[in-house]
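hey m, so remember when u said the C-alpha cells were messed up on ur end? i reran from scratch. heres the input so u can diff it against urs
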Amino acid sequence: MIHELRTYTLVPGGVRDYLRIYNECGRALQTRTLGQLIALMTPESGDINQLVFHWAFDSLDERARRRAALMADPAFAEFRKQVRHLLVRQESRLLSAA
C-alpha cells in the first residue's frame, strides 16, 4: 500500500475559494479516477493557507496509471485552470508502511 500526501499551498485566503471550486467541479472527477480520498485536511498551526490531500493506492503502478488518467481528463484540466491562480506551491510525498 502506498500513501500519497499532496499539499497545496494557496494564496492567503485562498483555501475557501479553492474548496468551493473543488467541491463544485473537481472532487467528483478526482475521486472517480483516483479512488477514495482518505482525508482532506487543513493545518491548525504553521502555514494555514494549505490543503493536504491523503490518497491511498495498492501500488506505485496503480498510482501512476490513475494519475495519468486524471491528467488526460479534459474536465479535470478545466478544473485546474479554474484554481491555478490560487496555487503558490504543490508538494507530493509518497509514503509506505514502516
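this time it looks ok to me. The first strand starts at residue 2 and ends at 10. if urs says something different then somethings off w ur setup not the seq
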